[in-house]
Amino acid sequence: MTSFAVVITSYNYRGFVAAAIDGALAQTRPAAQIIVVDDGSTDGSPDYLRERYGSDSRITLLCGENGGQLVAFQRGVAEARADVICFLDADDRWEPDYLARVGEIYDSRRDIDFVFSDMQLFGDEERWMGYADRSLDLGYTVISTYMLMHWYGAPTSALSLRAPWARRTLDLPEDISCNWRLSADNCLVYGASVLGARKYYLRTGAVHYRIHGNNGWWGKQTPSNEYLNRFRSRCMIEIYAKRIGLDAQCVESAKHELRTKPDPSWREAKRYAALARLRHGSWLRNLERAASILWPVFKRRHQAPKELRDMD
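Below the sequence we write its predicted structure tokens.
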């Protein structure tokens, strides 16, 4: 069976972190490792963690200087000795069956490299948030991510990926760390896509994402911050692309990438049709190519039961 390491990162979340750790310990499918990275907290968290979990052999505590979320991810992953690494923010929590649900995919689908889930928001805001209304094999997402910056992922606590992919995505130049003190889940999501991980969206209902006044990213969604986040993400995507020799010529293979998705949604088909129209050459030929992408999905969608059509 697939083994799991859980990396929990925390900064000044003494009031929340125990719930996250205890939820990871309570999984019906136990993790091989639970690695807690305290990123230089000043609220007494290090002493609290040592007192509460220092003698628990299931927990590895890493307490160090503050470096930001990307550095905390890197420190946690460096300690992981499991097949798959799951990430969990210290202010969030999982239902007891989360690892069991995710594990079913990794056990049965050795070709899947990256699984992300939906989330139940709680605290200051309560609602469901997810990538789609049904689980989806998203296939490969290199071209759509590189050309359109489409985000095939979720916030930190709903992300998991095979360990080699986690190490590859977090292998970034040291001077980029200052850009990702927050929102470092972008590195995992964009990096895995651009480097060629096969992705799967799994609805579990098992990830609880806490909304509160101190949320790092959630509480700082201003136009300026959104612009900077997108600009830095584009620069980071280019780092990954340069590593594998990827450039805009990849759009020539957009139709082939779509074919890696067994049951693409209508929105996904439209996304790839837009990519087809970015190819060099005759606009009429590109329009025909876009239509050839849309037609099979359109036909399948209208032959499907109404409830599935509504999901698209």
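The CA atoms of residues 165 and 292 lie 33 Å apart.
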